[in-house]
Specification:
With 443 residues, the protein is an alpha/beta fold. The protein has a single domain, classed as Alkaline Phosphatase, subunit A (3-Layer(aba) Sandwich), CATH 3.40.720. It is 33% helix and 18% strand. It contains 14 helices and 14 strands. Strand 12 and strand 13 form a beta hairpin. Helix 3 packs parallel to helix 11 and helix 8 packs across helix 9. The N terminus is likely disordered.
Length: 443
Amino acid sequence: MLAIRNYLVLLICSVVCLNCTESEQTSDTAKQSPNIVLIISDDQSWTDYSFMGHKTIETPNIDKLANTGLTFTHGYATAPLCSPSLASIITGLYPHQAGILGNDPIFESKEKKYTNEWMIERRTAYQKYIDQFKEVNTIADLLGEKGYISLQTGKWWLGNYSTGGFDQGMTHGDPSKGGRHGDEGLKIGREGMEEIFNFIDSAQQSNTPFFLWYAPFLPHSPHTPPEALLEKYLALAPTPAVARYWAMCEWFDLTCGQLMDYVETKGINEQTLFVYVTDNGWIQNPDRPNRYAPRSKREPYEMGIRTPIVFKWEGSIKPNMDTTTAVSAIDIATTILEICGIEPEENMQGINVLNSEVLKARDLIFAENYSHDFTTVDSSLLQRIAIDMPYKLILPDTTNQPEASIELFNIVEDPHEKNNLADAQSRKVDLIQDKIRAWWEDE
């Protein structure tokens, strides 16, 4: 009976996104639910792509993806830090819902940070969060119920890949062998793409739809690009540290090109949905290699949480460069699931961004920021953020940041947030603040 039910679900899901409007809907002639390729950049600012206007960094492959897909240039991560951001992407839940607030739990230790002994102690403290996360349905879990096979590669903070519902993966999660944020998975891209290519081949041979999590340790530090790329950008960048970071951005783009080309050579472009997002932003410190500058990673500003978000499905999603609508990484899970005819979980707060009526009706989107080392929401919360285009409100937690001021920016006219409008537009501050509190209290 289960096999018959799954087969019927697959038939039903051949009609995709029936509620979408004609201008942005996926094709209802799609013969099957698409393969899903989720590409996640690691520590890259929204500005650092050719198609987003960078005058030096070259990203031809991501440019191609963006120019042939439905691209939102005002996309936002749910948090300016990788672990909670990635957890939101895979679950469709905000950090406070998923319970993954930061990168490391707070615990007492006499060991030096990141040694094997410290890692083992960390895992003991972190285990309760892994156990909690196992109770949440992820994209991989829900697609698996529909017959998909899935592979995890790259960054992964939640122990073994199986915690996320993946059938296969590179991350073992063993703290005695370096398991913290990806371990063996961090080799993908930097040391080749063989695991991904083998996975795609296997899925094709078994005629099984697949879900691929490609979250490489790129352009993340250590900034160790290929020599040719480094030499190229040393001649163009203001400092060697910046050159290294710029070269890493292009290296990441090259690996995306390898992945996209492989899908094309297999003749499955029209059966594959590509989704692109970054986990959090980065401003390279010009004088300190591998270090970020203020107002980027771990902070609620545009250079910390803004990211392009792309949905590309050749022949099924109409290409469009949307430069005015704010969307969130929280929308990725909902959009993927609805494309595949799967009902999103009730507690998922994202929307299907292909449904233009729903997209237009949404009031605003939210983000959160917590301490890197965390315990509970109450003790670790730093700011809550709301984007109500063209405005963005940053609301500090009054307990954990009693000296911080509320900030309001017009992020269209002032994308680098130099002019705080909170005093001048107190009415707007009150309105957005009320919406943040209503959203928070609904949880």
